[in-house]
Design a protein that fits this description.
Layout (H helix, E strand, L loop, with lengths): L7 H24 L6 H8 L3 H7 L3 H22 L6 H16 L5 H13 L1 H26 L8 H22 L6 H11 L4
Helix pairs in contact: 1-2, 1-4, 1-6, 4-5, 4-7, 5-8, 5-9, 6-7, 7-8, 8-9
Amino acid sequence: MQRDPLPVRERTRRVVRGELAQLAQSLFVEQGYDETTVDDLASAAGMSKRTFFRYFASKEELVMGKYEFFGQQLVEDLAARPADEPLWESLRQIFGRVADYVENDARRAESIAMEKIVRDHPALNASYLDRVSRMQELVLDEVRTRTGQTDPADPRTAAIVGAAFSCLIAAWSTWLTTDQAKPFGVLLDQAMDAIQPT
C-alpha cells in the first residue's frame, strides 16, 4: 500500500531531530546523562534553548526519540512488505532495520554505551520499556490492517506481534550482555526461529 510522502517541513524536522539525538548521544556518553544539561546540548548544537525545545520537550524525550522514530519506520516498512508474505517473515524483515542500526560500525561503540546508560538509569529504562510497548502497538495496528483481523476479542494477532517483539528484545539483551560475540542479526534469527509459528 503506497503512503503519501511526508511534507518537506516534517522531513526537515526529522532530520534536525536526528542530528540533535546523535549529538546528544555523544555528549551523554562523554559526560554522563545526568551531568549533561539542556544548555550543554543547545550550545553544542549551535542553537538557543528555546529552539532546542521546539524539537524536544526534555533530555529524556531526546533520548527516547529514536524509539519513536523506529516505531514509525517499522510501520512504514511493514506496509511496504509484499501482501502475500507470511506475517512472521514480514516481522523479521522489518526488524532488519534495527539490526542494521545496531550493527553500524560508524556508531557502534557510542550506541552500545548509550544503550547501557538507558538500561542503568531507572527513569530512562522505564521510558524505554514504555516506548517499546508503543512501538509494538503501532506495529500491531498495521498488522491488523494488513491481515484484516481487527477483532479485539481475538488475541492471536496480538500474540504473534508480541512474540516477535519478545524475540527482538531477547536478541538485543543477549547482544548487549555478551559483548557482541555474535552479530545481532544472527541472534535475532535464532530467537525468532526458536518460536516460529507453524
